[in-house]
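sorry for the late reply, my laptop died twice this morning and i had to redo everyting from scratch. anyway the thing you sent over, i finally got around to it. pasting the sequence first so we're on the same page, its 395 residues, then the predicted structure underneath. double check i copied it right bc i was rushing
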Amino acid sequence: MPAKGEEAAVAHSDVLVVGGGIIGLGVAWRAAQRGLSVAVADPSPGGGAAQVAAGMLAPVTELQYGEEPLLRLGMVSNRRYAAFAAELTELTGLDTGYRATGTLAVALDADDRAELRELHAFQARLGLSSEWLTGRECRRLEPMLAPGVRGGLHVADDHQVDGRRLAAALVAACERLGVAFHRAAAAELLTTAGRAGEVRATGVRLSTGVELSAGCTVLAAGARSHLLPGLPAGVLPAIRPVKGQVLRLRVPPRYAPFLSRNVRAVVRGQHIYLVPRADGELVVGATTEEQGHDTTVTAGGVYELLRDAHELVPGITELELAETGAGLRPGSPDNAPLLGPTALPGLAAATGHHRNGVLLTPVTADLLADYLATGELPALAADFTPHRFRTEVPA
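ok and here's the structure:
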């Protein structure tokens, strides 16, 4: 018997989403809300990078120079998150772990302080809301911080969500709306040539041999999106996997609250963050490694995270190490997402989100659903179309 939400007998749909991570699920949910028939192809819907991600919603504190378009997209998505999460919970009864906590970015030495000061000035020039704090003011907000903290930026509007809870809620929401889940890998993109010779994507063949057809196929397969057999050269750029190792600690009740908000810093040139959950979990991440598709948790990665976290919050070594994990961020050539129709008719992309996949889930879902329902990509996505990397597609 097909599993719940799976309709093996239905081989055609308006929309076929290849990839059942939170990006693909968000697109499927919103597209189904628009009245489209939707199918998702993925061996394990709800898996992917969100199972490892800390879930920081931090467009302001993650801002880097030259990323102003990405900042705007992230801020739009962040503003939509509370309603997005509430809607999921109302529909499914599942908590997404969304918390309006704010983020505190701190400096541990004079060089870090100078860099943060420069970032604060850049944020101010862009009209962003962030507050400079002295080291003493930082420790007043978060008493567990190291005594040597030199200062920091408090961004009240940067929040968090639990990626695992979000994924589970999105699977349930899709099931409620009749999305068909095909729990198998997409083995090949199917294309046909029209009377004029134009090649068009028409669906996929699954690893089981079943063929699924669709009016539009959406590639949302993370770091493997461009590797789908049958995809013509030049349609998508290479999406590289960027490995991130993450730790999950448990805060005993006697230490609660250990931290009240997201805390981040740069230690020895490496970015580190600590994200406290309401249930006592503390997520520490993340390494940034260009190691291909390897997801091995290494002793070195765990050591570096604990060492740097200890410099930031010395009391962290008293906590239980509950879990280690590693995931793959899908990075595009410019580390910004690919959103909307590709050069191959019938094929759209929702991939390449790099470190912003959790943050950009609501806005990606909305933008792709609008395109799928109307044929028009909203202006907000103009800087992120796959066409910015376009090369000629063979006929």
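The CA atoms of residues 19 and 221 lie 4 Å apart.
thats about all i looked at so far, will dig more tmrw
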